[in-house]
Amino acid sequence: MAFVKVAETTDVTAGYGLLVERDGRTLAVFNAGGKFYACSAVCPHEDGPLADGWIEGNAVVCPWHGFDFELTSGRCLVDAELSIATYPVRVNGTAIEVDLP
Ligand code: FES
């Protein structure tokens, strides 16, 4: 496990996400009012593009069918059987760094 830079803080619009690729992984990084989160980029419902979703409260809403997922736990708030991977994030200066497993 190691924190790696995936984007600059200015790359991610507040309330929205950014698709990033790093070390062979594709992630979605979100800016929730200046606090950043990282999670899997693919919605487990029907493979929707989570990075194209938006933030409501502490959850990302999938743009395809509106399922929402907590950015801290990955838990789906619509279907308890669904979840997404989430990754620790830190901001180092202007760099968004994600702890990839
Ligand atoms: S594909 Fe994400 S809610 Fe359906």
Describe the structure.
The protein is mainly beta and 101 residues long. The chain has a single domain (2-100), classed as Rieske Iron-sulfur Protein (3-layer Sandwich). 0% of the residues lie in helices and 48% in strands. It has no helices and ten strands. The strands form three sheets. A four-stranded antiparallel β-sheet has the order 2-3-4-8, with no helix packed on it. A three-stranded antiparallel β-sheet has the order 1-10-9, with no helix packed on it. A hairpin with a 2-residue loop joins strand 9 (89-92) and strand 10. The structure holds FE2/S2 (inorganic) cluster (FES). FE2/S2 (inorganic) cluster binds at residues 43, 45-46, 48, 62, 64-65, 67. Residues 43, 45-46, 48, 62, 64-65, 67 line the site of FE2/S2 (inorganic) cluster (FES).
Q: Keywords, please?
A:
single chain; 101 residues; mainly beta; Rieske Iron-sulfur Protein; four-stranded antiparallel beta sheet; three-stranded antiparallel beta sheet; 10 strands; 0% helix; globular; binds FE2/S2 (inorganic) cluster
Topology, please?
Blueprint: E1 2-8, E2 17-22, E3 25-32, E4 35-40, E5 54-56, E6 59-61, E7 68-70, E8 86-87, E9 89-92, E10 95-100
Antiparallel strand pairs: 1-10, 2-3, 3-4, 4-8, 5-6, 6-7, 9-10
